[in-house]
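anyone seen this seq b4? input:
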Amino acid sequence: MMSVILPTNVMTLETALLQRQSLRDAGKKLVFTNGCFDLLHAGHVTYLQEARALGDALWVGLNTDTSVQGLKGPLRPIVPEQERAIVMAALGCVDGVVFFSDPTPNALIAALQPDIHTKGGDYKATDLQEYSIITAYGGEVKILPFVEGMSSSNMIGTILERYGR
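predicted toks r here
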């Protein structure tokens, strides 16, 4: 296992809360999204760029390995959380990364209170568990277009099909 040093924009919740207050004080709009981002692909990057364009900063809530396993099964994630965070934090459109281990980002969203929360077009805003939390404090939920045919699961399927088990 490699020893990794996480970039400074991979934050603890405590650091994120301090930086969130600084953004508020400066009158800047925080956009937030969350996900596993296991095998990063063009659909992810397109989505993240579109999310970033909605505000002054984009933070990503990144599911921990334990959380991903709970959502996707015991064989996931393919890429460990620290490595996923390094890749995510290196994207020019991502200003901050915060891990969360719960099955939903609800507690993280409630703590950070982003101005805008984004999800991909495979969701409906009012169906999201976090919708009532966000609207209660005056935030917005924006659903961004889904890039068809691009997913980590599809990538895994292609690898298995081409290279076997």
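Residues 13-25 form the longest helix (13 residues). The radius of gyration is 16 Å. kinda curious what u guys think
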